[in-house]
Amino acid sequence: MAVAKPKQQRLVLALAALAVMVAAGIVAIFALQDTAAYFKAPSDIAAEPPAPGQTIRLGGLVKAGSVGRSADGLVLNFTVTDMKADTPVSYRGIVPDLFRENQGVIATGSFDASGHFVARELLAKHDENYMPPEVAKALEKNGHPMGAGRPT
Amino acid sequence: MRFPVLGPIPAMAAPDLHALANPLRFQRFATALTPWLLVLGLAFMTVGIWRGLFFAPPDYLQGETVRILYIHVPSAWFAMGGYLGMALAALAAMVWKHPLAALSVRAIAPVGALFAAICLITGSIWGRPTWGTWWVWDGRLTSMLVLFLLYLGVIALIHSHDDKARGLKMAGYLAIVGTLNLPIIKFSVEKWNTLHQPASIRLSGSSIHPDMLQPLLLSALGFLLLFAGLVLVRMRTLIAEQRLEMRAMRRAARAG
After folding, report:
1. Residue A122 near residue B132 (C-beta atoms within 8 A)
2. N or C: which end of chain A has fewer CB within 10 A?
């Protein structure tokens, strides 16, 4: 077998290095799935309930028809769902503009002693669909409202 | 629309790409191409952003805020694309030891850093009214910040050593190792729970309404041409700098 020229050796080594790096990135994506998650879904919480008082981020969709206010209007109550499990949440503070039913939300807070999730911070998620309001209205009229039934 | 021929560039006609590796021929090619890239890039970018700001419809959910998309998305794409280009240039410099490849690494790094910074800044401004926060440490935002820091690291390493060739070599290693981050940026929003939403444009199609997609693609084409134009400007500057240095050295040798 002919001995490879240094240039060819370097090429093979460099390409191998690049391939290994990209592969490492892809492996990291799968390996860090739990560690790198920014929030926990209601079904994660149902499977592994956190201790009362432990701060977690809860994420999912705002369940349709679940949004309400307390009698004095200061506390916002809603349910976060991932279509498998639901977690009721209470929040007192400024609500982001994009907060609405069937859209994503991330609530930072903890469970109180009675097992109710109290959020200290509320962030709104939005999905990857961009469209004019008329189109969204037409979709809703035809029975396909945006956000309904899709996991975040 | 027809564009005049760029001038006598035998390298373009010949199938042999090696011809472009000749620095003198590259100089001529770059000199002819640079103004075209800059002017067309600015034109497409202006038209794309203009149409995005004044003619595209508002978003059903975000309203007018969505218009920052026309700057944020193109800068993100080419911050990442530029990084891949820089890593490939570093790889070529390592394998073939061609001076133009090493020069490309030096030329791309600051332009890529600029695009990554634009992406981070516009993203932050966009995040405040929509998500309700300027910044979170989720997978996408963090990996994009890492991309920006990798660019800064490559720039710092280039200038880190008295022996320029050694500094450049170390910068090249970092550029190649940093490609690890590219699949993480891309797939963070698909595989990890993030505040940032998944990609709107995929192989299977786009979930951006055509009236919004068209200005976005125009703007993106402008950003791409502008990126290439700025890199060529820098490459020409770096070549000129090297010539000046060599001339000064020759003069010093003669005087000594």
Report:
1. yes
2. N
At position B106, the amino acid (one-letter code) is R
Residues B42, B44, B49, B55: is their CA dihedral positive or negative?
A: positive
- Pick the closest to residue A52 from A120, A107, A106, A117 (CA basis): A117
CB-CB neighbors (< 8 A) of B86 in chain A = none
pLDDT of B256 > 80? The answer is no
Chain B contact probe: residue of A10, A38, A44, A137 with most B CBs at under 10 A: A38
Phi, psi torsion values for B38, nearest 5 degrees: -65, -45
> Which residues of chain B lie closer than 8 angstroms to A152, CB-CB?
193
What residues of chain B, 106 to 165, have a C-beta less than 8 Å from chain A?
Answer: 129-133, 136-139
CA distance, residue B61 to nearest chain A CA (Å): 7
Contact across the interface for B179 and A125, Cβ inside 8 Å = no
Say which residue the tokens 């390493």 belong to: B157
- Give residue B12's pLDDT: 43
Fold held by A38-141:
OB fold (Dihydrolipoamide Acetyltransferase, E2P) (2.40.50)
Check A25 against B179: CB less than 8 A apart: yes
Q: What is the pTM of this model?
A: 0.88
In angstroms, the separation between the Cα of residue A87 and the nearest Cα of chain B is 17
- Residue A48, classified by CB atoms within 10 Å of its CB into exposed (0-12), middle (13-18) or buried (19+), is exposed
Q: How far apart are the C-alpha atoms of A25 and B142, rounded to whole Å?
A: 14
- Residue ranges of chain A with pLDDT lower than 50? 148-152
Residue A130 annotated as lining a ligand binding site: yes
B7 has pLDDT over 90? no
Domain ranges of chain A: 1-36, 38-141
Residue-wise pLDDT for B98-113, tens only, equals: 889 999 999 999 999 9
Q: pLDDT digits over A111-144, tens only?
A: 999 989 999 999 999 989 999 998 888 888 887 7
Does the distance separating the beta carbons of B57 and A132 come in below 8 Å?
yes
